[in-house]
Design brief:
single chain; about 180 residues; mainly alpha; Four Helix Bundle (Hemerythrin (Met), subunit A); two-stranded antiparallel ribbon; about 50% helix; disordered N terminus; Maleylpyruvate isomerase N-terminal domain-containing protein; isomerase activity; DinB-like
């Protein structure tokens, strides 16, 4: 598979995110800005609402926990791609973490702080990459197995932040908890 770089989604049909808008020049700033926006919405979540799924949708706290964990996992993937030639990104177990109740009992404001902190940490890691590092590759297995660059990975992080902010805004607007 070496040398095969596949850009899966240039534009997300659900949230309108365009991967081409995130380049190495703006990635760190976009991660911090989008994480701040996500965390600000999470801060407004009703701390008394508690987790309750509707129609299989994740709850606001599950989205918050997922985003926090995604930021940590993506940072480790960046470091792994710097240390090894085209390593495989191990799946993070996003659905399993929710099923295992990893996100039950979380405090929305504490989770918002953690999202901000993890985003700052990941953005710093990206900001330390030299021009030649942005094209380092790793094998990403979702939604299909393909080699991706670290620049694509940064855009994917921003997409996750944008998309899941849309999800929690939907939850808060409709009074529902849950995952689309």
């Amino acid at each position: 598979m070496s040398g095969r770089i596949v850009v899966v989604a240039m534009r997300c049909e659900e949230c309108g995110f365009d991967f081409a808008d995130v380049t190495s020049a703006v990635a760190s700033g976009e991660i911090v800005a989008r994480a701040e926006s996500f965390a600000s919405v999470l801060d407004r979540a009703d701390p008394e609402a508690g987790p309750r799924r509707v129609g299989g949708r994740w709850t606001t706290l599950e989205y918050g926990g997922h985003v926090r964990d995604m930021l940590v996992v993506q940072r480790e993937r960046v470091l792994m791609a710097r240390m090894h030639d085209v390593p495989e990104a191990t799946p993070m177990g996003r659905d399993e973490r929710a099923e295992w109740a990893e996100y039950e009992g979380l405090d929305a404001s504490e989770l918002a702080r953690q999202v901000r902190d993890c985003a700052d940490w990941l953005a710093r890691t990206f900001s330390l990459l030299g021009p030649d590092h942005w094209q380092r590759r790793l094998v990403y297995t979702y939604p299909e197995r393909a080699e991706r660059t670290l620049e694509w990975l940064a855009a994917n992080v921003v997409h996750e932040l944008v998309h899941h902010e849309m999800d929690i805004r939907h939850n808060l607007r409709t009074g529902q908890e849950g995952r689309s």
